[in-house]
Structures are given as C-alpha cells and as structure tokens.
Amino acid sequence: MTSRPPTDHRTDAHDGLPPMPNASSGAASNAQGWPVFEPGWVWLAGAGPGDPGLITLHTLNALKQADVIVYDALIDPRILDWANPDASIEYAGKRGGKPSPKQRDITLRLIELTQQNKRVLRLKGGDPFVFGRGGEEAQVLIQAGVPIRIIPGISAGIGGLAYAGIPVTHRDVNQAVTFLTGHDRTGAAPTALNWKGIAEGSQVIVMYMAIKHLPEICANLIEAGRNPSEPVAVVSNATWSKMDVLETTLANAPHDVMDQGIEPPAIICVGDVVLMRQCLDWMGQMNGIAPRDLDPLKRGDNKDSA
Asked: Which of 32, 99, 127, 161 is the most buried (most CB within 10 A)?
C-alpha cells in the first residue's frame, strides 16, 4: 500500500467554518472543507478524558465518516452515538489487571481492516500520543504501508485537572511541569526514571496510571528531596459525572487513597498548584459550594505585572 498525503479541502478563513458532513453520507459530503477520510486509511484520534463535549471537531468529523471504529477503554459510549450509523464498532480496550487484547493483535487488526479498504478510526482516550501507545501503533502502521492521520485530543493530565479546578501551570508556582507514567512496559513501577532529577527539576509533577505503585513512587520522591507535606490531588474518573477528587499530601497520599477506596482511572498532581482548587473548584461552585479560600497561594493584593 502506497502512502499519500491527506486530502484536505478547506475553505478560506473568511468563509467561516464549513458544515460538518452528514453522518450517513461519508467522505462524499466532505468537499466543502473538512478532511476527507479515504478508504484504506487509519485515523488515530484522541477522544479526550471522558466528557463527550471535550472531543475535537476533527474527531467528530472522523466519527461521521469512519467505516470501522476501534475504540479503547474509558471512551464515553455517548461519543459513539455520533458515529456513522453504518459503521462497525469494535472494542479494543486495555485495562490493568483485567483480560485485555494484546497490543500486537490490535495493530494487526487495524492493518487487516485497511486491507479490506475500510476507513478505520482508532479512537483512544485522552491524547493518542500521551501515554496512549499511539506512537507504537502509528509506527507499525506506517511500517506496514498504511497511511495515517493523527488527531490530537485533550489529555487527562491537563483537561482532567482543569475539571478539578487545578491549573497545571500557574505563574506564581511553576515554570515547568513533568508528566510521568506510574508503570513501565512490564507493569512494574518505573525504574528508569531519575527521581532526584524529577524531584528537583519540576515544581509540578503529574502522574498517569500511578495508583498501583503510589507508595513506592511517593517514597522515591520524598527520598529524592520533595517535601512530605507537599499538596497532592488524586482525581479519579476525571471529567466524568462520577469524578472524585482527593486532596492530601505526598506523605499521606498512599494511605489516603487506600482509605478512601480511590481506584483507577486516576490522574495525580503533586505541587502547590493543587492549592488553587480551594479557589477554582468551579464545578463545586456550580453546585452552590462557596470557594474555601480566595487567595490559596497567599499572594495578597499584589498587582499583576505585564
């Protein structure tokens, strides 16, 4: 199969956003501006952290044109309601500790579907290139001669924290943020990380898939110099209706997670940006809960600089 560049028909900027293609008419309806999903292609798209409203318009366009949708765990089923009604839907979710398809089998299935001249949408939670193994899948597809398109999505480490009222960056707190995974490719706690470098090099640390090895990770960070009383937030089921947020400290996080029965999927944030939730818990405020502290970083009335 010969790779070729994506076919993008776009209107001029002043023409405004073109109408979205109809769900049942496929690529033929796409001549007015949206990327055309060609047969034999795989589009790897991020569906965001959960809330269906956080998918991108490009992902919605892909859903309306795809012949087959191969989707991951943690995809809200309502997102699939926007799919082309004639599309086949295949589940390929991988969940830790549960029977899951092997990565190689998933990729081989994608290749097989393109050989049937299908428009294949690989729908992944969050962003496909942020701890989503999208890079692995994309590489194998290209090696097999399958043309691809990448559609980024909102990652839970940014969007999920925002729903919890935690800004992943704040000018008064951090000039860097480190994203890390809580396990390596074997499922064990990551051993190749420079914990001292991470502890000293980034004011804010965001961890994916870290619940299982949280005691070891917290101990490593404290041993590397992080303050045991540093604020930590554990956001479970981020952006979903059942979202739960635990506010704790680095030393107490492992015990509190177990005591509160917090289970994956969860995103964990370490750093003083967690304190901003006391002011920015916008979802709580929508439900009538008053802010706990209007100045959680204790900056007083300092005027904002340019």
From this structure: 161
* pLDDT for the residue numbered 259: 97
The reply to whether 246 and 270 lie within a common domain is yes
pLDDT of residue 298: 93
Angle, CA 135 vertex, CA 99 and CA 48 arms, to 5°: 70
Annotation marks residue 258 as catalytic = no
CB within 8 A of 206, min separation 6: which ones?
Answer: 157, 161, 168, 177, 178, 179, 180, 267, 268, 269, 270
**Based on the structure, what is the number of domains in the chain?**
2
Query: Does pLDDT of 11 surpass 60?
Result: no
Residue where a domain stops, chosen among 136, 153, 170 = 153
pLDDT at position 4 is 38
pTM of the model: 0.88
Exactly one of 72, 76, 127, 281 is catalytic; name it.
Answer: 72
Active-site annotation holds for 118? no
Segments forming the whole domain that contains residue 199: 157-286
| Residue 94 banded pLDDT, cuts 50, 70, 90 | low
Please give the Cα distance from 113 to 108 (Å, whole number).
9
Query: Which of the following is catalytic: 94, 212, 244, 283?
Result: 94
Torsion over CA: 221, 222, 224, 225 (sign): positive
The catalytic position among 51, 67, 127, 209 is 209
Q: Is 94 annotated in the active site?
A: yes
